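Colleagues,

For the teaching module next term, I've prepared a clean inverse folding example: a structure given as tokens, and then the sequence designed for it. I'd like students to try predicting residues themselves before seeing the answer, so please don't circulate the second half yet.
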């Protein structure tokens, strides 16, 4: 398949997303492979192939058909006549090659191409696909891949430099006062200059993760992210809440991620059950706020805001947290849908006390969060 057709496919998928039709990068990869197996000059055959490969839902069929006519109605969408060897790809066409590159695309809709021995096989970064894959579509194998990727993603928090300067034996700024003090012992001779350097700042985070039923497609992957944070920011405290609050930090071990998550899921009461956000946060304020939250602490709340409890309690708890914490960040997986508006009772009660409201539906959204935790 030519690069022009691949780019046209990427733009078509972007147009679908703009109209509210879900089409992920993984779906685009499947569509690119399907296009290599059909007669591109047969519009109806191409339409059926794209509809199947992009996993178009019945309710989106009308939108897909209208956009297909707009984008693929011409004899050739790239503006030229298709040569005979491109009208039908070989029966044994190779699937798109996944390039294990560490680089990421410039945008979520960009599809990377790379050279291949055939010269016309589109290439995709497996890492880029995983970063942009919605948690609700992830599998057990995706979690295993995330287990390898997450430490690299959060490693920057372990190397954040503070503005504060501390004495160092290595390279750094000259400290005149300490240098002259040391020279007193050598009759005023500056035999060695004392230096100061910026120390590594360890982030202090308190994370409260919603594990109710409505969060079930997301909570396992979000907890995996929080466990990875704990490894590079040891002062991170992790709590789970649904109808009650559970402190997870004592349960976290240095073992395998999946085993830890399974232990947490088995031990947290009412996992994937109901939710009372207000009551749970009020319990945290009463039992843990004074001990764990101060002016250096970032409070990270992970929830879709679908609360069945008392929103008055939620408002009061959020006010108490905002008054003491350095910053309150609320991660909502539903923000990954551009049509979403935070109008649920829980979100409306919490928003006045939230410094940052951000999405948490895929790894890319969590990666964008990291600078906020290090600031």
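(Answer key — instructors only)
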């Amino acid at each position: 398949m030519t690069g022009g057709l691949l780019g046209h496919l990427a733009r078509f998928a972007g147009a679908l997303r703009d109209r509210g039709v879900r089409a992920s990068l993984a779906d685009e990869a499947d569509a690119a492979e399907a296009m290599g197996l059909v007669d591109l000059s047969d519009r109806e055959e191409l339409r059926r192939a794209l509809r199947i490969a992009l996993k178009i839902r019945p309710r989106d069929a009308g939108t897909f058909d209208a956009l297909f006519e707009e984008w693929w109605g011409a004899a050739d969408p790239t503006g030229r006549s298709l040569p005979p060897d491109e009208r039908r790809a070989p029966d044994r066409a190779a699937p798109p090659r996944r390039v294990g590159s560490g680089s990421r695309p410039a945008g979520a809709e960009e599809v990377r191409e790379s050279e291949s021995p055939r010269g016309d096989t589109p290439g995709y970064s497996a890492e880029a696909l995983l970063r942009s894959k919605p948690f609700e579509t992830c599998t057990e194998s995706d979690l295993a891949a995330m287990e390898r990727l997450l430490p690299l993603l959060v490693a920057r928090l372990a190397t954040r430099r503070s503005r504060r300067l501390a004495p160092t034996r290595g390279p750094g700024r000259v400290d005149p006062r300490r240098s002259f003090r040391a020279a007193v012992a050598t009759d005023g001779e500056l035999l060695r200059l004392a230096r100061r350097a910026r120390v590594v700042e360890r982030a202090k985070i308190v994370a409260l993760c919603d594990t109710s039923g409505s969060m079930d497609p997301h909570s396992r992957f979000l907890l995996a992210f929080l466990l990875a944070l704990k490894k590079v920011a040891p002062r991170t405290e992790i709590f789970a809440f649904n109808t009650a609050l559970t402190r997870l930090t004592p349960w976290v071990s240095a073992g395998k991620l999946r085993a830890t998550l399974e232990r947490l899921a088995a031990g947290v009461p009412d996992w994937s059950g109901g939710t009372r956000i207000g009551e749970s946060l009020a319990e945290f304020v009463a039992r843990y706020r004074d001990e764990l939250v101060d002016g250096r602490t970032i409070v990270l709340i992970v929830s879709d805001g679908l609360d069945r409890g008392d929103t008055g309690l939620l408002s009061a708890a959020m006010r108490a947290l905002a008054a003491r914490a350095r910053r309150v960040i609320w991660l909502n997986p539903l923000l990954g849908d551009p049509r979403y508006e935070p109008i649920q009772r829980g979100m409306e009660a919490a928003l006045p006390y939230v410094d940052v409201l951000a999405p948490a539906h895929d790894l890319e959204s969590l990666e964008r969060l990291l600078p906020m935790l290090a600031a």
